[in-house]
Task: inverse folding
């Protein structure tokens, strides 16, 4: 399943994505965590500020699924590592969307690039 153009447009314009990977039981959603998100092509991508040591990142990679809320909607989603070949495009999207934030530099660092996640509807 893919995002619709309308969904991606709304998500790209939003700055309120909260991610809730499943807990270890595979049924209970984790505590929603606010994160930055970007759209590149037909994909939705996120990165954890703390890289691969991030709690939500570890849960997302372990469980592979969960839920996000963004732009007034809730979506059941799947999580997978992003294609590393897209990291420069993901960086550019972060730079365009969050140019004025003092947190931009860490979000395009090697630490966070190594933990880029693609989110798809399920």
Result:
């Amino acid at each position: 399943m893919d995002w619709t153009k309308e969904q991606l447009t709304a998500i790209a314009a939003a700055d309120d994505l909260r991610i809730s990977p499943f807990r270890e039981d595979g049924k209970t959603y984790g505590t929603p965590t606010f994160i930055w998100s970007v759209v590149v092509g037909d994909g939705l991508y996120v990165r954890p500020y703390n890289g691969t040591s991030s709690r939500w990142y570890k849960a997302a990679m372990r469980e592979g699924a969960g839920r996000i809320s963004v732009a007034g909607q809730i979506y059941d989603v799947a999580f997978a590592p992003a294609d590393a070949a897209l990291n420069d495009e993901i960086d550019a999207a972060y730079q365009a969307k969050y140019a004025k934030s003092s947190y931009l530099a860490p979000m395009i660092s090697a630490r966070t690039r190594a933990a880029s996640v693609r989110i798809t509807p399920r």
Observations:
- The domain at 5-121 is CATH 2.30.110.10 (Pnp Oxidase; Chain A).
- The mean pLDDT is 96.
- The radius of gyration is 13 Å.
